Amino acid sequence: MTAGASRTAPDPPNNSSSLTRARPGCATPTSYAGASAAVFAPSPTGGQFSTPIGGQNWTPIDTFLAVPRFASYARGAATLIVSDGLERGDPLAFADAVAKLSRRAWRLSWLTPLARGRNFKPQTEALIAVSRFVDDMVDGGSTPAIVDHVLALGRKRAA
User: Fold this and answer.
1) Among candidates 128, 138, 141, which has minimal Cα distance to 87?
2) Average pLDDT of every residue of the chain
3) pLDDT tens digits for range 111-153
4) What is the dihedral of CA 36, 99, 77, 139, to 10 degrees?
5) For residue 80, what are the β-bridge partners?
6) In the chain, at which end, N or C, are there fewer CB atoms within 10 A of the end residue's CB?
7) What are the domain boundaries of the chain?
8) Each residue of 48-96: pLDDT tens digit?
9) What span, in angstroms and rounded, lies between the C-alpha atoms of 61 and 78?
10) d(C-alpha 129, C-alpha 49), whole Å
């Protein structure tokens, strides 16, 4: 694959969320892994943005894990979910999907703009349901907060 080429992820079965295309900066397998995982973010153009993350007992996380090539990216990885966690589907299906992802990952971090400050306690049904499966639930409301968390994970891995 050449540097400028792009791939798209398969459409998730029974899920109407819009997916955005990943455009990796270079064609190395390592850099493409992160770009491939990024295709499961909802489209910022609106699309079906209100589709439940955990609805219909098939979540985008389940879709990610159902594709062996994508699921292998999570094994032993520092995995980040950047979401407000304002789930409108079944919180149990959602928590089950997060639990599956958590078992594969080295660390699973949930970055949410709702987590301002050190005393953050999840208030939404979805965040409460997944909190036992995530290693970190931290501020994801700004680019500097996300970068700080990723760098902190790098220091933890090196220690």
Assistant:
1) 128
2) 73
3) 999 988 788 899 888 899 999 999 999 999 999 999 999 999 9
4) 90
5) 109
6) C
7) 29-158
8) 434 444 445 667 888 889 999 999 999 999 999 998 888 777 888 889 9
9) 15
10) 22
- The rounded distance, in Å, linking the Cα atoms of 156 and 102 is 17
Mark out the alpha helices in the chain (DSSP H runs): 29-37, 60-66, 68-74, 91-104, 125-130, 143-158
Strands 136-139 and 78-82: unpaired
The reported pTM is: 0.64
The token pair at 88 is: 């409108």
Nearest residue to 50 via CA among 16, 24, 74? 16
State the maximum Cα–Cα separation within the chain, in Å, rounded to a whole number.
46
